[in-house]
Amino acid sequence: MNATDTQRWGILYCPRNGIRSKRKRWERLQKELDQRGVHYDFVQSEASDSVERLVTMLIRNGYKTIIVVGGDSALNDAVNCLMREESSVRRQVNLGVVPNGSLNDFARFWGFNEADDSQTVEWLTHGRIRSVDLGCLHYTDKQGQQQQRYFLNCVNIGTTADIMNLRQQTRRVLWSRTLSFISSVILKIFHRKDYKMRLRVNSEVIDRRVMTLCVGNAHGYGQTPSAVPYNGMLDVTVVYDPQVLQLFSGLWLLISGRFLNHRSVHPYRTRLLEVDEAKKALVGIDGRLIPTPVGAYNITVEQEVVNFLIPD
Q: pLDDT tens digits for 83-99?
């Protein structure tokens, strides 16, 4: 496989787990591509750990447009592959998405709709490009190695990351994204916990128990609704431990897009968040858990480092 035609797309198809009609989903998309005369080569990931390998293969084989048919986690793998390349290589690659994951928050930020492949493909063929920011988590792993992981959407620390973990476990039983999410939230409402954290954001030190923390480069699943991935800043929401009734009102505000109005939510905007302490708090990046960092870690932003195909 080699993209001798610079206009040829490399498409990575990431089927959703538990969906039986994986072939039909691809066939619907293929029909839209063929109707518009798109030249492309297609590869399919068999598991989440194959995404980075396949994206790297597409980059090394000269594809200048790489389309990920997947969700936030697959996009996360793609941008981390790109960030391992020299900037001269990365600047020549345009990344696009056809939403097809359990979580498609970054695609929805731009207005892409999983139910409308026709509109998505049309927008992608127009080739409108915007250089977008990436957040980056810098941390030490259990082996004492310094690591960094980039993100397009958000980092969650604490209860929201717990819900992601529960959601993955309950979905194996319930086989439904909606039911697994609702059941995970209910379980956490009645078995909630907070975490001792020490945070430094701008000139403020937060040293207290925190229920959940979201650092958003984009909307952060509704927790950082004012964040945009092109202003060189990160939005941070710190949620202190509310009472049960306040939790229900907070869920309603989250659904209705008014999360920042909740009395337990404290918003910030910054280029750097330092986490000096967050004992036993799970960490999720773009909807996927990572091994819990050891010791202190920090989150920064890099401005306009990835070319992304956006709607007209």
A: 999 999 999 999 999 99
